[in-house]
Amino acid sequence: MEGSVCVEQKGTVEQISGHNIRVRIHREALCGDCSAKGLCFIGEGNERELEISTFTPGLKVGDQVEVMISQSMGNKAVLLGYLVPFIILVTTLITLSTFGASEWLMGITSLCALAPYFLLLYFFRNRLRKTFTLSARKK
């Protein structure tokens, strides 16, 4: 894998279909070392299933694997998922504040300003799925 590994989690191969595998990762494995695990709602379910297209050959259903994503892909995910929406939200708030809008209008408009961005991400989800590649290797 190019770049240094950002996240490396253990999982179990659930399904093999063509050029993809489906890996199940338990929530404890995802959140075990995270200091914000009590506040975060991303991993609310106990398990997470991931579809992976880059993996070591010879895997079978039930094999234990390590799922990895590169540092650069992790940084790009944080940028698209957290930083850009934050910038849109704050920019809208500051802009409306300078024009003297009321607080409730600033809040609602700022939240509504995020809708086009998230719709854009939704429409480009297939392209993003190709960009954010996970890889798996046998443990």
Protein described:
The chain is an alpha+beta fold. The relative contact order is 0.20. The two termini are 16 Å apart. The chain has four helices and six strands, in the order ββαβββαααβ. It is elongated. Strand 1 (5-17) and strand 2 (20-26) form a beta hairpin. The mean pLDDT is 82. Helices cover 44% and strands 28% of the residues. The longest helix has 28 residues, at 71-98.
Task: Give the proportion of residues in helices.
Answer: 40-55%
Strands, total number: 6
Mean pLDDT: 82
Structural class by SSE content: alpha+beta
Side by side, the strands of the main sheet go 3-2-1-5-6-4
- From the alpha carbons, calculate the radius of gyration and give it in angstroms: 19 Å
Outline:
elongated
How is the biggest beta sheet arranged? Answer: 6 strands, mixed
Total of DSSP H or I helical runs spanning 4+ residues: 4
Q: Low-confidence parts lasting 5 or more residues at pLDDT below 50?
A: none
Approximate strand percentage: 25-35%
Terminus-to-terminus distance: 16 Å
- What is the element string, with H for helices and E for strands? EEHEEEHHHE
